[in-house]
Amino acid sequence: METHKMDVKGGNEMELKTELVELMEAVASETKTTPKFRTVLKRLDRTLRNIEPILRESGRLSKVLDRPEQETEMFVKYLGNGKRLVMECSGINCLIVNKKFVHANKLIHLDHELLRFFRVELQNDMSVSMRALTEIYDLGEKMDQVLSTVANRAGGFLSSCSVPGLPDFIVGLDGHLRELKRILLKDDSQVVTVSAPGGCGKTTLVKMLCHDNEIKGTFGDNIFYITVSRTASLKTIVEKIFAHHLHVKNCEFQNDEDAKNQLQTMLSQMGSEKILLVLDDVWGESESIIRDLKFPISGYKILVTSRFLFSSIGSTYHLGLLNDEDARTLFYHLAFPCDGDHIYVSDDLIIKMVKSCKGLPLALTTVGASLRGQGEHKWRTTLKKWSEGQSIFDSNSELLISLRASVDALEHLPIAHECFLDLGSFPEDEKIAASALMDLWVELYGLDKEGMYAIECLLELSSRNLLNLTVSSKDASELEGYCNEHYVTQHDLLRELAIHLSSQEPIPQRTRMLIEIHGNDIPTWWIEQTQQLMSARLLSITTDETFSSVWNDLKAPKVEVLVLNTQGKTYTLPHFIKTMNELKALNITSYGIYPSELHELTLISYLSNLKRMRLEHVSLSPSVQSISQLKKLQKLSFIMCEIGNALESSAVDSPMSSNLMEFEMTNALESYPIDSSPMPPNLTELEFNGCYDLKQIPASVCYLVHLEKLSITNCHELDALPKGLGSLSNLEILRLHSCTRLASLPESIGNLHNLVFLDISDCLGINSLPYQIGELNGLRVFKMSGCHGLEELPTSVTNLSLLEDVICDEETSYLWRYYENDLRDMKINVVEDDRLANLMKIVG
Questions:
Q1: Per-residue pLDDT for 624 more than 70?
Q2: What fold is seen in the domain 324-399?
Q3: Which of 395, 390, 423 is nearest to 407 (CA)?
Q4: Is the pLDDT reported for residue 322 higher than 70?
Q5: 258-262, 567-571, 646-650, 655-659: which range is least confident on average?
Q6: Where are the domain boundaries for CATH 3.80.10.10 in the chain?
């Protein structure tokens, strides 16, 4: 009896080996020649290769066969049937979709039976990766679900969507899910884009949506989920839809147009069923693909996730960052997966670490995971390194790779790439005036003087979610400068990314030097390398309120743009700027509560090549008049400055006052000595904005014969303009917005024959316009909303033959309608009047 058992077992062993070898040969042959079943066959081949070592070792195979004889014999027969099943693959007509599904399902079942029969030995085999084994099971189960769903559908035409699974732990997205679901189901837009920077959880949110019961109840199995690569074409995306959701892999399209037409035909055949096409991770260069996938099919929606904004296509849902509570919950889950681990780390350290991640889910995930199981010492040293200037990206490559991808996508826009890196020049968590960026970029990259190309860079970065552009004026005109009153904000980690990417080269070789000084702690490299020349074209130095303005020498003769950021009550300019002979743009900004008092302003007079200077939230002294020596200065901006008597002509030893009086009375420009003016003589742009103590504009402004743009806005103490304003013969743009105490315009304004844009909106004190306003025969745009004291217009406005746009409130519009027949090209644009805002301007 025992001998008989041995014979049977030996016979089964031989037969099993034979059948398995023949099955392996059949799988290898069909994999090469039958592409339509290649995915399933490759999985089966992988399983057989894992089993092969067991076949070679009789002892181990005997253990496998040490089970009821009947079961072993049945399995041997099953292998024979499996070989025939594999050999039949090449004969299956995949145009008959149901046949392909049924056959693929049989192959997957064969794979499962192999794994089940050899499971114990496979699990004990050190040569078999348990991770790979689990992957095989998961893939098999997912395909089983897909194929069984399709096979059970009437007609067997489409498969259910293979929506990726959800992470084990999700926090902070429930509210976003409700709002996104509302937009998708209620909004009339066919395309809805979920937009946010990398690492914010866009894909997770959309997966949640696809798994939502209400969404599944609406779209059923007609949810097509496609991950779009950067190099994707319309043709490849349609191929994915046919391959992954129809399981027809041999579809060949002649071109994109053919693919588009066939997809539209296929979707149209679905009748009244609703369809959701999900395009995950779409890049900016693929915008045209989204447009091509829009079809006039009722119930058909497209949901897009992207780091970019596609504002011209459908609706956009902006996914924000996590709030403090949700951020801590997510971080805690990654850093302390087991209860009790947190006892080794204080709550204070956890709060600081969470705060450093700035609410970005990817940062919270990667930083939390990196600190899992680490002691408190590791936490403290990590925070200390970051506080000393080491980047968070130095220890988190995954975070760096994810966020950097958006920047690397600018490779075909090199100037926009550089513009992004320049954003690291400004302090953390502060608004950046768009016009300040324009000044930097125009000079650094040789863009047009008007800044239109610079504006394009700004809009490009905004469309890619690399910055946030806030529009402060809905009725902004191109003539006055699109970004004149707009500002930029940026996520702290994107700012840190800009700094990190700018700091990869050795310090002397960097083209962009971004320096932060805390207290009087000058960086060591600066102290040690005072004699070494820097190559930087842009230099930014940020100091806090405790900095004593004691500077070490710095040799940076190639600097073209200098950005000085301070918070102190007093601030002394660094003496080394005297050697910056190539400097073209200077930006000095105080971010403190009170304006910083500037000292050593006379150093500016050494900057002979300076073209643009911006002073923001600083207190000026008469020494600022040394700027009059800057012959090349073209643009000068005073933003929220405390001006006092700094620009008064009496501050300079010259007969300016008496001569100016004579000029204003007689309009004799020749009698005034231009050399004594406190203003640079060749200015083309002059800006005063929010200078709260500015009561009078220096009369010397009237001698800036090259001036093209004069902007005096939000200066609520200003009550009069110089009488000689009309001498600015080249002036094209005059902005007087929100000068609430300004009572009138000078009569000489009629001499501004080149003026094309005039803005007196919210000048509440103006109750009449001079008759000479009609002599502005070049005026095209007139903004005057909020001029509630104005009761009538002079009849001379009928001479404004080139006037195209009048932007005003409803009350003022009636005054202009009286002259519509005389001004046939004029368009009256009524804007909503905000009385409360006007009141706040006066109170402010």
A1: yes
A2: Helicase, Ruva Protein; domain 3 (1.10.8)
A3: 423
A4: yes
A5: 655-659
A6: 651-844
What's the CATH class of domain 174-318? alpha beta
Q: Where in the chain is the domain with CATH 1.10.8?
A: 324-399
pLDDT mean over 829-837: 64
- Write down the pTM of the prediction: 0.62
State the helix-helix crossing angle for 324-335 and 347-356, rounded to 10 degrees: 110
Ranking 466-480, 640-654, 734-748, 763-777 by mean pLDDT, the lowest is 466-480
- CB contact set of 622 (below 8 Å; sequence gap of 6+): 645, 646, 648, 651, 652
Portion of the chain with pLDDT greater than 70, in percent: 78
Place 140 in a pLDDT band, splitting at 50, 70 and 90.
very low
Strands (E), 228-384: 275-282, 300-306, 315-318
Are the C-beta atoms of 605 and 630 separated by less than 8 Å? yes
CA distance 694 to 716: 8
Instruction: Report the alpha-carbon distance of residue 290 to residue 191 in Å, rounded.
Output: 8
CB 514 within 8 A of CB 442: no
pLDDT band at 37 (very low <50, low <70, confident <90, very high): confident
Q: Of 558, 520, 565, 518, which is closest to residue 541 (Cα–Cα)?
A: 565
Give, in degrees to the nearest 5, the angle at Cα 225 between 222 and 228.
Answer: 145
Residues 500, 505, 510, 516: is their CA dihedral positive or negative?
positive
Q: What dotted CATH number matches 410-499?
A: 1.10.10
pLDDT (mean) for 342-361? 79
For 268-290, what is each residue's pLDDT tens digit? Answer: 877 667 889 999 888 877 888 88
What number of H helices and E strands is found in the chain? 26, 24
> How crowded is residue 548: how many other Cβ atoms within 10 Å of its Cβ?
11
Instruction: Supply the DSSP string of 131-191, one letter for each residue.
Output: HHHHHHHHHHHHHHHHHHHHHHSGGG--PPP-PPPPPS---S-HHHHHHHHHHHHH-S-SE
Sequence ranges of the chain with CATH classification 1.10.10: 410-499
Residue 548 predicted with pLDDT over 80: yes
Architecture of domain 651-844: Alpha-Beta Horseshoe (3.80)
Q: Is the dihedral of CA 326, 330, 335, 337 positive or negative?
A: positive
Element spanning 688, H or E: strand 685-689
Which residues of the chain form CATH 3.40.50.300? 174-318
Note whether 647 and 704 are within 8 A (CB): no
Distance CA 134, CA 140 (A): 10
Q: What is the pLDDT at residue 607?
A: 94
Q: Could you tell me if 13 and 73 are in contact, meaning their C-beta atoms sit under 8 angstroms apart?
A: no
Cα–Cα distance, 126 to 115 (Å, whole number): 16
Q: Which long-range contacts (CB under 8 A, 24 or more apart) does 335-340 make?
A: 335/368, 335/369, 335/371, 335/372, 336/372, 337/372
| Pair 703, 726: CB distance under 8 Å | no
Lowest mean pLDDT among 49-63, 233-247, 715-729: 49-63
Sheet holding 223-227: strands in order across?
A: 223-227, 275-282, 300-306, 191-195, 315-318
Tokens representing 545 are 């309120």
**pLDDT bucket at 55, cuts 50 / 70 / 90:** low
* pLDDT averaged over every residue in the chain: 79
More confident residue, 140 or 778: 778
CA angle 326, 327, 332 (to 5 degrees): 100
Residues near 626 by beta carbon (within 8 Å), at least 6 away in sequence: 601, 602, 604, 605
Q: Would residue 73 be called left, alpha or beta, if left means φ above 0 and alpha means ψ between -120 and 50 degrees?
A: alpha
Of the two residues 496 and 448, the one the predictor is more confident about is 496
Residue count of the chain = 844
Residues 538 and 583: their CA atoms lie apart, in Å, by 9
